[in-house]
Amino acid sequence: MLFHILLGLSFVSCFSTIRGLDQQRYRVLDMDTKGNLYLHKSALLCKNEIIKRLTNGKYHLAEDRQLLIGLSKTSPVLNCKDLKQKVPTLVSGVYWIDPDGGSHGNAFQAYCDQQTDGGGWTLVWSYTFTAYSSFNSAANAVTPRPTWTASSANTRVSTTVPLSETHYDAMNFALWRTIGKETLIKSNINNWIACKERTGSIVQQKTGSITCKLVKHVSKQCAGVVPNRVTMKYADGPYLSSSSNYYLFDGNTGSNWPTHDPCGKDKPNQLKGVTNPHGNIFVR
Ligand SMILES: [Ca+2]
Ligand SMILES: [Ca+2]
What we know:
By secondary structure, the protein is mainly β. It has four helices and 16 strands. It is elongated and about 75 Å long. Bound molecules: calcium ion (2 copies). The site of one calcium ion has 7 residues, from loops.
C-alpha cells in the first residue's frame, strides 16, 4: 500500500528557470513499503519546492482517508453502491460494509462487483448444485439456500456472507433488503439479468411483476429473452419466469429441479459440462 504525504496546499510559483521536469508541479507524494517516493503530477507545487520543504522538515507523513474507505471495520461504506459512488475507481473485491449505518460494531466484509452493469453490486448469495450432471432430476437442487421462505426445501441453510462468487454461502436474507432493491443474477450456466421491482420483489419476498434486462449472454440460445415475473414463497424455492421458468432456485433434493433456462420455457437448456457450475445473486 502507498502512503500519501499530504502537503500544505499553498500555491507557490516555481522560480526555477530550468526547463523540463523541474518545471512541473505536484500535489502529493506517495511512498511504497520500500521507502521509494513517487511524485504525482497534479500541478500544485513544483518538484524543487517539495524537496526543499521535505528537507526542511515542513511536511509529515499522513494516511489518506480516501485510500482507507471500505478497507477496515472502522471505515466501512453502507454497501457496494455507496462505495462505487465514493470511490468509483476501486476494483471488484472484498470490502467492509455497514448496511444499517450508525455504529460500525456490526460492520462486516462482503464482495462487491464494481464492474458489471455500472458496478455497485453487493454479493448476497453464491450457490452450486447438488446434482449438476443430472440437472433435471429430483435430486438436483441449489445449495446452500438463503433464509427465505421455502417450506419444502431441505438443502443447507446459510447465514454466512459469501466472499466470492464460488464461496457457496448466503447473507442472512433479512439483510438483503437493507442493501437495495435491484437484483443482479449471474450464473456460468445461464444468462445474467438485472431486475427492478414492480409489483414483485425478491428482497421484499413479494410475488408479482419485475422488469429485467439482459446483462450478459452466457448462452447462445434464445437471445433477448428475460423473465418478467417473480414468484416468492413457493414451497421448493423462488422462481423467475417469462412464458415459463427461467431461474428456479429449487432447494428440494426429493422433488423438482433448479431450472436455469435462457429460453424461459422450464426446459433443461442450461449450459452443460461446465466446471464449477454456480450462480450468484447481488443486490444494489
Ligand atoms: Ca451499523
Ligand atoms: Ca430438486
